[in-house]
């Protein structure tokens, strides 16, 4: 499919949704945003990205909505909410997604597509979207971008005879908006690759009240991160993911190069929002154990997060 003139819907225009949506819109795409708490600010001042390289980028006016029922049918739907809200997302997606639309989950975690697939019509394409970016919501309708911005894709399911070709067509659309994008061979590999970074840094930032720079500067916490990454790599291999042997070294090096950063789970905890414990920790742990591999340090991290938040995943 040719997505050159596709209408794009962004569900959940927080940091991730606003960042990619604004870049796409400024590159000429027809982008429509579903917001709630930021709706008034976005309607009055537009959406603003404080971009690390490009300076302040403003989309004003922005096509913003409070109700999915008011949005036009969209050919590409970017689902950018937290996985803790997924129970309510299927009806919204089905209201917005045009027939044969591509639904892309820009979410963290493992197997997040599986539960949603059963709630979508058979003619919708479902893809994993893996964001490699340092970005956070600074104020209503204002996002601070610190580094990176890649968006990789993997086809999960749908009517496409060649899912990789459809993912490549979407990737080409993102590249046209100066978004670095690549197609990954399968969803399992894509999800585990992101978890190698997300599992240690997200949880440890909450438990230790520390940024990535602080975690990397301390020899003990840095060693613990590397050990957890190795556990995740073993779990990934047991589940059939083909990750490069040097991935841990590359991720540690990339983290050392990035600006000091507080991961998304840190911001969720600071703002007393539910943490994505089920998607980022419980689901991959269950999958790894089911394939004969234990991840004891990751399990301990999850147990500590449950204790700290008194949460059930």
Automatic annotation (TrEMBL):
Transmembrane regions: 6-27
GO terms classed as biological process: pantothenate biosynthetic process
Domain Ketopantoate reductase C-terminal, residue spans: 186-308
Pathway involvement of the protein, from the record: Cofactor biosynthesis; (R)-pantothenate biosynthesis; (R)-pantoate from 3-methyl-2-oxobutanoate: step 2/2
InterPro entries linked to this entry: 6-PGluconate_DH-like_C_sf, 6PGD_dom2, ApbA, KPA_reductase, KPR-Related, KPR_N, NAD(P)-bd_dom_sf
EC number: 1.1.1.169
Cellular component aspect of the GO annotation: cytoplasm
Keyword annotations: Membrane, NADP, Oxidoreductase, Pantothenate biosynthesis, Transmembrane, Transmembrane helix
Ketopantoate reductase N-terminal domain location: 8-156
GO molecular function: 2-dehydropantoate 2-reductase activity
Catalytic reaction(s) noted: (R)-pantoate + NADP(+) = 2-dehydropantoate + NADPH + H(+)
Family to which the UniProt record says this protein belongs: Belongs to the ketopantoate reductase family.
Stated role: Catalyzes the NADPH-dependent reduction of ketopantoate into pantoic acid.
Protein name per the record: 2-dehydropantoate 2-reductase
């Amino acid at each position: 499919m040719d997505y050159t003139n596709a209408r794009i819907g962004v569900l959940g225009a927080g940091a991730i949704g606003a960042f990619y949506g604004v870049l796409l819109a400024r590159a000429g795409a027809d982008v429509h945003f579903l917001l709630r708490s930021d709706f008034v600010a976005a309607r009055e001042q537009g959406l603003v990205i404080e971009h690390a390289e490009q300076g302040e980028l403003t989309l004003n006016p922005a096509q913003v909505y409070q109700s999915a029922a008011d949005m036009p049918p969209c050919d590409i739907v970017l689902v950018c909410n937290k996985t803790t809200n997924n129970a309510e997302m299927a009806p919204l997606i089905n209201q917005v997604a045009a027939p044969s639309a591509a639904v892309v989950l820009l979410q963290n975690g493992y197997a997040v597509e599986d539960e949603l697939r059963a709630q979508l019509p058979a003619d919708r394409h479902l893809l994993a979207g893996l964001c490699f970016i340092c970005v956070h919501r600074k104020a209503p309708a204002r996002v601070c971008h610190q580094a990176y911005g890649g968006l990789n894709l993997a086809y999960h399911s749908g009517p496409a005879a060649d899912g990789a070709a459809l993912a490549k067509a979407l990737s080409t659309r993102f590249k046209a908006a100066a978004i670095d994008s690549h197609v990954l061979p399968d969803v399992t590999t894509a999800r585990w690759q992101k978890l190698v970074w997300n599992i240690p840094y997200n949880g440890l930032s909450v438990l230790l009240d520390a940024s990535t720079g602080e975690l990397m500067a301390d020899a003990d916490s840095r060693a613990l991160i590397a050990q957890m990454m190795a556990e995740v790599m073993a779990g990934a291999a047991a589940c059939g993911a083909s990750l490069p042997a040097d991935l841990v070294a590359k991720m540690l090096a990339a983290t050392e190069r990035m600006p000091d950063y507080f991961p998304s789970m840190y911001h969720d905890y600071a703002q007393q929002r539910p943490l994505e414990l089920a998607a980022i920790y419980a689901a991959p742990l269950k999958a790894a154990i089911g394939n004969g591999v234990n991840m004891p340090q990751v399990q301990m991290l999850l147990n500590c997060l449950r204790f700290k938040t008194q949460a059930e995943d």
